[in-house]
Amino acid sequence: MNNVTMLEFNEAGELLQSVIDNRIPAIMSYMSKNKWHVAKVSIVDLAETGMCIEPVNSGMHIQPINIQEGQPVGLSFKYSYGKFVIDTTVQDLVPGGQAGKGRIVLSNPDQIIAIQRRSYFRVSVPKAIRVKSVVWPRRGTQNTEQMEHQYSEGTLVDLSCGGAQIAVPLSQEEGSNRPEFRQGQFIGVRFTPLPYEKPLMFDAQIRNILPTADNNAICLGLQLVGLEASDEGRATLKRVAEIVDKYHQMNEGQLDPETVLAPINESEIEID
């Protein structure tokens, strides 16, 4: 099986029923007020008319989900040999339900993306390359032009289809406009995984912030968000899976770094 496989929905019906029977939790990603949000949900019913989901309690509280009918959302869950990603839309909002949670009916998707579990293990960036990264706070409709006014440069440490780690130096030139980062914050990320490739850009949420062993930088532990809910995002997710596999092959000696970097001049190895 390839790292990323497309399953037709009629092939995945048995899989989804197993997820329901085994009470496997899922993560729904959606856009609200121009910001990405994630919510833990469970799939409780599957019919020809659509999938029914409920929010999962977070501690003593039910997490509010601000969505509307017709809104595109992404749904993902880990089960068996990998992670499964569903692109769908909100079909109906049903108030009440068990414990007053309310239910959300999602349209049955035409296809389901299956990503092998190994793509979700963090893989270190090969020592032969240095991947420079740019991170910036996400604020509503902020775009790439706004990013240029407040951002930090760092180095990609590791990568998976679920997250990444970026080291941001604490030292900075006088007059720089580096933003402050905090746990739970949503940020934009951009880097070029290999010198001859196009840059990757996506949104992420900061899960933790830890100092490096030498205390010269902070490491932002990131969770990728929103990639399940759009064609562009799913294309990015597939590309991340390919890069993770390539990094793994380079680290294990299955792929010669010199061969990978051969088309590039030495001056281009440090990535902008």
The rounded distance between the terminal residues' Cα atoms is 34 Å
Structural class: alpha+beta
Which oligomeric form is depicted? single chain
Strands, total number? 17
Number of helices: 4
Strand content: 35-45%
Tell me the major beta sheet.
6 strands, antiparallel, barrel
**How many whole angstroms does the radius of gyration measure?**
20 Å
The percentage helix is 10-25%
* Overall pLDDT: 82
Secondary-structure element pattern, one letter each: EHEEEEEEEEEEEHEEEEEHH
Which sequence of strands runs across the widest sheet? 2-3-4-9-8-7
Shape: globular
Low-confidence regions: 264-272
How does this model look, in words?
The protein has 272 residues and is α+β, with helices and mostly antiparallel strands. The protein is 16% helix and 43% strand. The chain is built from 4 helices and 17 strands. The chain has a 6-stranded antiparallel beta barrel with strand order 2-3-4-9-8-7. A 6-stranded antiparallel β-barrel has the order 12-13-14-17-16-15. The chain has a two-stranded antiparallel sheet with strand order 5-6. The radius of gyration is 20 Å and the shape is globular. The two termini are 34 Å apart. 29% of the residues are buried.
